[in-house]
């Protein structure tokens, strides 16, 4: 080997060692967090682009780490999936989010109650009994199934797992809606999309972000929106950060969006109070 040699190898070994130790520490801490329920849920408005009113809120989990503060899900969901802890975390998020929807329902005009949208991982759907858990959560909070949406990633649906499809179909029969999350990052064929047990397409933010600068992306998105219309699927565009993008989306007939232009994820009470900024005429 050229330059570096032994010194570099040792450094590599010690970095590897540190990484493994950190991972083990994180694993232990996550298991403890599940015991202590050191999580919280934030809610990001899903906004009617034309009126600015929140149609619903996406529930996004955060971990209150004793030393590190709030840990974003990107840093622990994968680990929770690997270890199976996602089953407990996910079930907790589901009950918490449905309970929040119940409180919004009490505080708001019943005809304008926003729905809550919950991310569901592969493992939760495969563990068995998921439909019963959803029913229990709705029953405990006295929330109608129509106020719940479940977000399932496109890649999970593409695996064409009979059990998963059957559960989602049953939930839709109850009135729960299903959204395909991160749409545009997988490779759904059009005929497949037509068969999927889903009501809503969520356009991934990597896709949304480029529509203002790339004509190709814009045309693609326009095609997807038209197709969704044909299949009676609603569309939610993620990652709407600018008025330019919002306007482009509205021009293409996309009615719903989510992103920092409107709001970051909020604590439950702030979500309940959240309303569109009043614009001067
Ligand atoms: P996701 O489902 O695609 O959620 C959207 C992510 O984009 C959220 O990050 C949100 O805060 C962020 N975001 C929203 N608007 C904007 C924007 O305008 N610009 C940018 N740059 N980002 C925006 P977050 O909260 O860190 O969540 C990351 C991922 O973690 C989620 O991606 C989801 O896949 C996963 N996740 C979150 N909560 C749960 C949960 O309860 N269960 C499971 N299984 N996964 C979860
Ligand atoms: Ca999501
Ligand atoms: Ca998403
Ligand atoms: Ca995404």
Explain what you see.
The chain is an alpha/beta fold. Helices cover 49% and strands 19% of the residues. The chain is built from 12 helices and 9 strands. It has helices at residues 5-36, 77-83, 86-107, 122-126, 130-141, 154-158, 162-174, 190-195, 205-208, 215-230, 243-252, 268-273; strands at 39-48, 54-65, 69-71, 115-119, 148-153, 177-183, 200-203, 234-237, 256-257. It has an 8-stranded mixed barrel with strand order 1-2-4-5-6-7-8-9, surrounded by 4 helices. A hairpin with a 3-residue loop joins strand 2 and strand 3 (69-71). The termini are far apart. The chain binds ligand C2E and calcium ion (3 copies). One calcium ion binds at residues 182, 204-205, 238. Residues 23-279 form the EAL domain.
Fold topology:
Blueprint: H1 5-36, E1 39-48, E2 54-65, E3 69-71, H2 77-83, H3 86-107, E4 115-119, H4 122-126, H5 130-141, E5 148-153, H6 154-158, H7 162-174, E6 177-183, H8 190-195, E7 200-203, H9 205-208, H10 215-230, E8 234-237, H11 243-252, E9 256-257, H12 268-273
Parallel strand pairs: 2-4, 4-5, 5-6, 6-7, 7-8, 8-9
Antiparallel strand pairs: 1-2, 1-9, 2-3
Helix pairs in contact: 3-5
Protein name: PAS domain S-box-containing protein/diguanylate cyclase (GGDEF)-like protein
Keywords: Membrane, Transmembrane, Transmembrane helix
Domain EAL: 23-279
């Amino acid at each position: 080997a050229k330059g570096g040699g032994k010194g570099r190898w040792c450094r590599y070994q010690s970095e590897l060692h540190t990484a493994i130790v950190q991972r083990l520490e994180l694993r232990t801490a996550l298991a403890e967090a599940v015991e202590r329920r050191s999580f919280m849920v934030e809610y990001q408005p899903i906004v009617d682009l034309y009126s600015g009113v929140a149609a619903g809120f996406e529930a996004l989990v955060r971990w209150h780490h004793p030393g590190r503060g709030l840990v974003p899900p990107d840093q622990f969901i994968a680990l929770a999936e690997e270890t199976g802890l996602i089953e407990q975390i996910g079930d907790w998020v589901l009950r918490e989010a449905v309970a929040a929807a119940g409180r919004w329902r009490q505080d708001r005009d019943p005809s304008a109650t926003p729905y809550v949208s919950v991310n569901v991982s592969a493992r939760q759907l495969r563990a068995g009994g998921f439909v019963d858990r959803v029913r229990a959560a709705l029953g405990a909070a006295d929330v109608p199934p129509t106020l719940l949406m479940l977000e399932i990633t496109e890649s999970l649906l593409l695996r064409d797992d009979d059990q998963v499809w059957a559960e989602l179909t049953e939930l839709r029969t109850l009135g729960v809606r299903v959204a395909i999350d991160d749409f545009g990052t997988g490779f759904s064929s059009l005929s497949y999309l037509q068969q999927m047990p889903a009501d809503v397409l969520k356009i991934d933010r990597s896709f949304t972000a480029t529509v203002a600068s790339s004509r190709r992306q814009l045309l693609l998105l326009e095609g997807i929106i038209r197709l969704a219309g044909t299949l009676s699927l609603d569309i939610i565009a993620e990652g709407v950060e600018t008025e330019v993008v919002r306007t482009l989306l509205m021009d293409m007939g996309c009615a719903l969006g989510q992103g920092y232009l409107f709001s970051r994820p909020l604590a439950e009470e702030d979500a309940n109070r959240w309303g569109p900024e009043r614009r001067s005429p």
